[in-house]
Amino acid sequence: MSSTIIVAGSVNMDLVVRASRMPKEGESLIGSGFKMVPGGKGANQAVAAARLGSATHFLGRVGSDVFGTSLRENLASCGVNTDHLIEDDGPSGIAMIIVNEAGQNSIVVALGANDEVRPDDLSGAADLFSVADFLLVQLEVPLETVEAALDMAREAGVKSVLDAGPPRKLTLELLCKADIVSPNETETAALTGVEVVDPATAREAAKKLLDGGVETVVLKLGEQGSFVATRDLEEHVPAFRVDAVDTTAAGDAFTAALAVALADGDDLVDAVRFANAAGAVAVTRFGAQPSMPTRDEVERLVDERGGL
User: Fold this and answer.
1) Which of 190, 227, 250, 297 places its Cα 20 to 30 Å from the Cα of 280?
2) Which residues of 19-143 form beta strands (DSSP E)?
3) What pLDDT score was predicted for residue 2?
4) C-alpha–C-alpha distance, residues 122 and 35, integer Å
């Protein structure tokens, strides 16, 4: 029997262009390979969870424009339940993404309908929380909505993961409402003031979050893997080495896989290893939701490579 995952968050249309490098301030570059790709941190995580075998429900908003129709249809085609995806009278969210030759990206997001996702939008999904295993939230919707979703999960006994991106100023009170807080290096620096460059600095940053009351910290360290910490555990989990094509949404694949593995009964370190593998598969393909891996792909990488 599959797990049930609720994702409350953002859905965007990604407008992606390739360039030899990132432009300097005031500079224009000639790019290539323009594509419109469904994205948004919340929707990416929902697609990833569905492809990994979970019954997945997405809570959010799209605009009344052509992007909104396309985004809804794509989520449904990927196996995500969209009964609680509301149409807003305005534009959908979009993200402008530049991908360089090394596969690294730079992103600017216009929130659009995502900025209209309100706590009241969650009330119609109250029954879902009675059957869900995990809630996933991110920071591309209003913080009051993130907090309300975490409160609903806690009241229903549903475990939650806060993917702390993009970087925003958060209170410790909000952070502590999540069972797991999972930022990347940039987001960790914004939360703790610690520049994370290696496992040692990851340990320092994680300790700050734990000392502030966070229960479990899972830091995403890109090519260096992940660092997981609780009051009883500290472990650096190495990355899987792959040839990166596009790092867009790798963190979203990681977050979804972490929740799915934990819901399936894996212990925390094994779940993080599974999540590392999901992120690794994602960076080998172009785009956000098109790069989200299947369970077979992730399990094959874990079996073949053993975390190396």
Assistant:
1) 190
2) 32-39, 55-62, 80-87, 93-99, 105-110, 134-137
3) 81
4) 32
Beta bridge partners of 135: 6, 160
What is residue 102's DSSP assignment? T
d(CA 57, CA 81): 5
The CA-based angle 68-258-268, given to 5 degrees, is 160
Domain ranges of the chain: 4-10+41-90+115-305
Q: Which of 127, 246, 252, 296 is catalytic?
A: 252
Please give the structure tokens belonging to residue 249: 């949404």
- pTM for the model stands at 0.93
pLDDT tens across 205-216, in order? 999 999 999 999
pLDDT per residue over 22-80, tens digit each? Answer: 999 999 999 999 999 999 999 999 999 999 999 999 999 999 999 999 999 999 999 99
Spatial distance between the Cα atoms of 81 and 107, rounded to a whole number of angstroms:
27
Structure tokens that stand for 211 in this block: 């000392």
On whether the CB atoms of residues 149 and 162 are closer than 8 A, the answer is no
Give the whole-angstrom CA distance, residue 154 versus residue 161. 11
Name the percent of the chain in helix, strand, coil, to the closest 5. 40, 25, 35
* CATH match of 4-10+41-90+115-305 with 3.40.50.300: no
Active site residue 252: yes
Name the CA radius of gyration of the chain, rounded: 18
Q: Give the separation between CA 76 and CA 59, rounded to whole angstroms.
A: 13
